[in-house]
Amino acid sequence: MQVIYAILFGVCLGGIYAALYYLNHKTPLPKGCENLKAECDGCKITSCDMHPSHNIKETKND
User: Fold this and answer.
1) What is the per-residue pLDDT for 28?
2) Cα-based angle 36, 21, 23 (whole degrees, multiple of 5)
3) What separation in angstroms does the CA of 47 have from each of 28, 42, 53?
C-alpha cells in the first residue's frame, strides 16, 4: 500500500511541475524584457544563455 502512495505522490508532483511549466511558457514577457540579449554586456557567468561568448561564430581557415 505504501508503494501505491509513493507512486501517486510522484505522479502528483510530476503533474504539478508539468502544469506550472506549461503556464510559465504561456505567460507573456513583461514590457522592456522582449530583447534582453541585445542589451546584455555580459557578466562573469559564462553558462548564462545571454552571455556574449555564445554569439561568437567559428570561421574555417582553409
Assistant:
1) 86
2) 85
3) 25, 11, 9
Q: d(Cα 15, Cα 8) in Å, to the nearest integer? A: 10
For 16-56, the pLDDT digits (tens) are: 999 999 999 998 877 877 666 656 666 777 677 666 666 66
Whole-angstrom distance, CA of residue 47 vs CA of residue 54: 9
**Sequence-distant (≥ 6) Cβ neighbours of residue 36 within 8 angstroms:** 50
* First-residue to last-residue Cα distance in the chain: 67
Buried b / exposed e over 5-42, threshold 16 CB at 10 Å, is eeeeeeeeeeeeeeeeeeeeeeeeeeeeeeeeeeeeee
The confidence score (pLDDT) of residue 11 equals 98
